[in-house]
Amino acid sequence: MPRLTRLTPDTAVGTSRDLLADLVSRHGQIGDMVSTMAHSPAVLGGYLQLSRAMGRARLDRRISERISIAVQVLQGCRLCLDSHVNAARAMGVDEEEIERAHTGTSADPAIAAIIALALQIYREPTSITDDQVVALREYGYSDRAIADVVGVVALNILTGAFNLLAGLTPESDSSV
Q1: What residues have CB less than 8 Å from 109, skipping those under 6 apart?
Q2: Cα distances (Å, whole numbers) of residue 82 to 56, 68, 120, 127
Q3: What digits encode the pLDDT tens for the residues 48-88?
Q4: Which of 11, 90, 161, 172 is 20 to 30 A removed from 126 (C-alpha atoms)?
């Protein structure tokens, strides 16, 4: 059961009203997370900006979805986890790789290494080593792609934590 109410362009005020109205005009509808985030224009605006920025990331989306799955397994947001599993499937990630992502790894050593980095960023960023970054470069990741991992993790922390606070679950969601 949701803990926070959904807002609409008619019930939101100020900046949140404007942001929701813009989203509705462009997409036709908005999901529970976004409409609930509208209680805080700072959170909603920050989420929208980070989400748009990560849409321009150099990290392959099939990899970022696997990172998101691994992070959400730890964070415990079922709504986010379901969303990222569905996105990975839609991008052609096979079921075995989706299962591996649930355990924080991949059959591909390069992808396993970038997922491991993401989980370290989530759990204990002080444990990241120079050798890890060198190894990621040797796997072919650019500095930009490596830096993008921080953005993927940050976006997952924001959305997962918000959904958990708001009490949003797959059963309560109409569209994220």
Answers
A1: 139
A2: 23, 10, 22, 29
A3: 999 999 999 999 999 999 999 999 999 999 999 999 999 99
A4: 161
